[in-house]
Structure formats: structure tokens, C-alpha cells
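C-alpha cells as discussed.
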């Protein structure tokens, strides 16, 4: 039970930095996040190895895949998953070799020398009503892989969201990207992108549900000064101003001032606080007045 509990709470503790490279793509493409509790991670093989996977022989890797295949199929069959994403050629081949799904190539994405994005293939499959999407580029680890995130996010909107909205009853790309409390953004650009899509896809007056208590944290973002919480009662007008201001100033740093109780954790996005009335963003720990938030 301790192992199960540790796995279930993994993203509320100190997850491996590998996931932070994937999360902006999930937020943009699906309106989901590892940190919001509605995305999990599955391994083809359940064991950490020494040497690492890349250092094992083909015989060793194939034997590990063979031994853990029944458990993987049991997970996929019992967890009522609607969408499974498979990252990288090795995982694509592993899923196919394990008999999990048969891949159909949807498209070939050309490389982009300007961004460094490599060319890659995008695949789709289906098993027992669950949609599988996979791509040959290893986003976190391959050279240029991070540059592929925006293209993959667009492909997720087209091919992944329908698998989720079939049950959610939401309207595809118009679904509220912040419907769930607890989303975490890995940096300020990811936050601004999320807020921009929220403005386009909803008409809500506040960021989150304020029926119980508006001053509760609704989402968080990692910054140079620490984790910033954005409260549920943050207004639409303030969000619109912040998004526009961020774009106009080319990501100029925000600053920290004292809140009404004297704690130095309030995050300002403009030199004139009156312009951003309704922006309720606070660091989870106090820092020096004037600290820059990037």
C-alpha cells in the first residue's frame, strides 16, 4: 500500500524533471497536466535497471518487456483510460511488440531548421475504445525534441481531444483549459499560453470557481523566485491585461511587493498596480521586496 500511495502522490512531491519538459505540451494540446491529477505515467517495464535501459543488451530488454507485458495489459484494461500518449521511437516499438496496439501512420512532420525541430512521424491506434497517439521524436531527450512540442500540441488538439470530449461532453478545442483546479505550469510562457487559451475558449468572469472561497489557489507556476499561486477569484479583466502586457514587453520580469498583511509575496505584473486590479498572484514563500520574477 505504501508503494501504491507513493505512486499516486508522485506529482505532488518532487517529480523527475523529465516530466516538466512534457507538461507544457499536455496543457496546450489537451488542457491537462501531470500536476492536476488527471494524467498519469505508465512504463513498459516496471523496474529501474542498472545499467540504464540504453546499456542493456537486446536480449535483456526483450526479456524485461516479455515479463512485464501481462501487467501492462492489465493496467490498460482495468484503468478505464481514454487516451494514451507514447513518446519516442523506442516506446512506439515497445508498445507494438508487446501487442498493445497496431500503429497507423497519420502524417510525417518535416524538420524545421529555424527552430531545430527534427522530422518525425505521428501515429494513431486504438484498443478497446482507448485511443493511442505516438510520435517517433523523443521530446525530452532528443536533440531538438523540445522544439516539436508546439506541433505535437496541435496534433493533440485534432486527434487527442475527441477521445477525451467523447465522455466529458465538452466541445473539443473550445473546452475550458482551466476547468480543473490544481494545474501546474512549468514556466511563465506556459502560464501565458494557458491563460490566452482560457480567454479565447471561455467567457467566465473569474479564473476558477468562487462559490466557496475565491481566495484559494487555482493554479500554480514555477518561476525564478519560486512557485507562484494564482487564485480562483483572479478576474477576466486582469488576466486579459496580463497576457497583453506580457506580449508587449517581451516577457519583462514581474516584481514582488508586500501584500495587505505585510508579507512580501504579492506578485505585480505592472509598475502601476491599479492597472491590474483583480490579479491575485502570490509566491508560496516570502522573498525580498523588489525581487524579480521570471
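Sequence:
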Amino acid at each position: 500500500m505504501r508503494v501504491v500511495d507513493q505512486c499516486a502522490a508522485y506529482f505532488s512531491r518532487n517529480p523527475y524533471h523529465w516530466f516538466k519538459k512534457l507538461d507544457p505540451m499536455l496543457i496546450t494540446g489537451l488542457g491537462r497536466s501531470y500536476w492536476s491529477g488527471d494524467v498519469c505515467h505508465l512504463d513498459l517495464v516496471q523496474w529501474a535497471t542498472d545499467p540504464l535501459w540504453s546499456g542493456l543488451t537486446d536480449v535483456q530488454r526483450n526479456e524485461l518487456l516479455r515479463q512485464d507485458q501481462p501487467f501492462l495489459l492489465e493496467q490498460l484494461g482495468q484503468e478505464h483510460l481514454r487516451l494514451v500518449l507514447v513518446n519516442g521511437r523506442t516506446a512506439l516499438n515497445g508498445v507494438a511488440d508487446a501487442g498493445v496496439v497496431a500503429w497507423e501512420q497519420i502524417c510525417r512532420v518535416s524538420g524545421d531548421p529555424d527552430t531545430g525541430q527534427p522530422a518525425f512521424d505521428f501515429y494513431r491506434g486504438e484498443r478497446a475504445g482507448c485511443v493511442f497517439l505516438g510520435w517517433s521524436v523523443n521530446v525530452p531527450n532528443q536533440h531538438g525534441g523540445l522544439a516539436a512540442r508546439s506541433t505535437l500540441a496541435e496534433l493533440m488538439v485534432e486527434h487527442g481531444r475527441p477521445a477525451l470530449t467523447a465522455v466529458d461532453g465538452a466541445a473539443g478545442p473550445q473546452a475550458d483549459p482551466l476547468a480543473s483546479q490544481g494545474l501546474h505550469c512549468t514556466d511563465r510562457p506556459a502560464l501565458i499560453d494557458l491563460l490566452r487559451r482560457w480567454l479565447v475558449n471561455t467567457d467566465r468572469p473569474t479564473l476558477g470557481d468562487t462559490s466557496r472561497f475565491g481566495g484559494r489557489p487555482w493554479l500554480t507556476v514555477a518561476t525564478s523566485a519560486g512557485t507562484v499561486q494564482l487564485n480562483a477569484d483572479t478576474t477576466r479583466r486582469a488576466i486579459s491585461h496580463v497576457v497583453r502586457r506580457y506580449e508587449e514587453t517581451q516577457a519583462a520580469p514581474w516584481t514582488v511587493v508586500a501584500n495587505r498583511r505585510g508579507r512580501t509575496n504579492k506578485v505585480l505584473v505592472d509598475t502601476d498596480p491599479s492597472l491590474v486590479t483583480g490579479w491575485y498572484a502570490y509566491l508560496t514563500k516570502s522573498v525580498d521586496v523588489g525581487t524579480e520574477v521570471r
